[in-house]
């Protein structure tokens, strides 16, 4: 008997520019040492696939990395539709990025499907001396929105695995995934029909 196709789950990273979305994704999906990175903004959109095992089932997490720069905003939010989970990221050394989280939450509620799971990350927690957002503020904001919260460091690989594992678990426990078919990109990376929201 042929093995069952792996389950596919679509996740999206969102948040302001330079908060570390790409770095968080790399730390999770491509762990291992890498040279100190100079900032290269995401242009448009990118994704990586990470395979995990959940209750003896193989699950492929397709994780979309959106561009935080304002000029890509419309494009980035196009990818919200069809996602089962969101990783919302701010930078603990940048208060604007924290203030914007409520705006991103509203965007998700407006443009994503109804039943989505969201987690909040306060990234760059290795930069303690430059911190402007106390951990309690992040916890309070997450509590107000009823979502889990982690302070993370993509640089030092702190809490990254735990954050994604929790998000995947919350989604898979709900069993709201019915995604053996992806309508955007198949797992070999070849493009299939691409859908986008109306602007
Ligand atoms: N110290 C420290 N620096 C980080 C961390 N995460 C990211 N950075 C740095 O912050 C800068 C921006 O990181 P990116 O991952 O490109 O940020 P982004 O949110 O994807 O940015 P956009 O593509 O513009 O949306 C880079 O110089 C990273 O090396 C972290 O946890 N700690």
TrEMBL record:
Lineage: superkingdom: Eukaryota
PROSITE patterns: RAB, RAS, RHO
Catalytic activity annotation: GTP + H2O = GDP + phosphate + H(+)
Family: Belongs to the small GTPase superfamily. Rab family.
EC top class named in words: hydrolase
Cell membrane as UniProt keyword: no
Signal peptide location: none
InterPro entries reported in the protein's UniProt record: P-loop_NTPase, Small_GTP-bd, Small_GTPase, Small_GTPase_Rab
CC annotations in GO: endomembrane system; membrane
Keyword rRNA-binding: no
Identification of the protein by name: small monomeric GTPase
Mode of membrane association: Lipid-anchor
Location relative to the cell: Endomembrane system; Membrane
EC annotation from Swiss-Prot or TrEMBL: 3.6.5.2
One Pfam family per UniProt: Ras
UniProt keywords, alphabetically: GTP-binding, Lipoprotein, Membrane, Nucleotide-binding, Prenylation
A GO MF term: GTP binding
SUPFAM superfamilies: P-loop containing nucleoside triphosphate hydrolases
